[in-house]
Design a protein that fits this description.
By secondary structure, the chain is an alpha/beta fold. The chain has a domain at 10-38 and 100-212: Rossmann fold, CATH 3.40.50. Helix content is 47%, strand content 19%. It has helices spanning 21-28, 61-70, 88-96, 107-116, 130-140, 145-160, 174-189, 192-212; strands spanning 10-14, 35-38, 41-42, 57-58, 73-79, 82-87, 100-104, 121-126, 167-170. The strands form two sheets. Strands 2-7-1-8-9 form a five-stranded parallel beta sheet, sandwiched between helices. Strands 4-3-6-5 form a four-stranded mixed beta sheet. Helix 1 (21-28) packs across helix 7. The longest helix is centred in the last third of the chain and has 21 residues, at 192-212.
Length: 213
């Protein structure tokens, strides 16, 4: 019997800081048993409540630089004076085992991953407006005024890059944004591109049956 299960797919979700991307992802992942979430590595200090290995793999600057030299990272970047990166070996192992993999990375990292994995599906989460984004960032009360100015400037640059992403989600209503991400993941899994390896195997089995019957 041939089972038409799609091969593992790679997804990227990007968004400026404060848009609510992590909240959206966190609500979708429990409904996706065949999805694996890649926890990024960073040299940024942990914020209150963050757990090593769950929110990020927190590394020293020396550890991160050693990882760059050894080819450990699928992508890496320096953002707001800290390094961020995605572990290449974990991602490629999951994909090889047939799991979908979701990366939560920025625009710069997305460009690098697309070079290594051209079939990756990219999703960008937008705020309803810059005013709302600034309000959300201020509400976190985790940055100084100078840091806030830097984040808002970075957000404008990232949003200008959103036009080349495959899918866009506007996080005006959280539940609607969550449903949008669920719908995108389901549609990608059912695409001709995703299903073609399994369908090819299925069709070859029909040909074999025809020949032997």
């Amino acid at each position: 019997m041939v089972h038409l299960e799609p091969a593992g797919q790679l997804f990227i979700v990007s968004a400026p800081s404060g848009v609510g991307k992590s909240t959206i992802i966190g609500k979708v992942l429990p409904d996706c048993p065949k999805m694996r979430f890649s926890v990024s590595s960073t040299t940024r200090p942990a914020r209150p409540g963050e757990v090593d290995g769950k929110d990020y793999h927190f590394l020293s600057a020396d550890e991160f630089r050693q990882g760059i030299s050894s080819g450990r990272f699928l992508e890496w970047a320096r953002v707001h004076s800290h390094f961020y990166g995605t572990d290449r070996h974990i991602v490629e192992k999951w994909l090889g085992d047939g799991f979908d993999v979701l990366l939560d990375i920025d625009v710069q990292g997305t460009r690098l991953v697309r070079c290594a994995h051209p079939a990756v599906k990219t999703i960008f989460v937008l705020p309803p407006s810059m005013e709302v984004l600034e309000e959300r960032l201020r509400g976190r009360a985790t940055e100084t005024e100078e840091q806030l100015t830097v984040r808002l400037a970075a957000a404008r640059r990232e949003i200008l890059e959103s036009s080349w992403y495959d899918y866009l989600i506007i996080n005006d209503d959280l539940q609607e944004a969550v449903e949008d991400l669920r719908a995108i993941l389901r549609a990608c899994r059912a695409s001709r591109e995703a299903r073609s390896p399994a369908v090819k195997t299925f069709l070859m089995s029909l040909i074999d049956l025809t020949i032997t019957s």
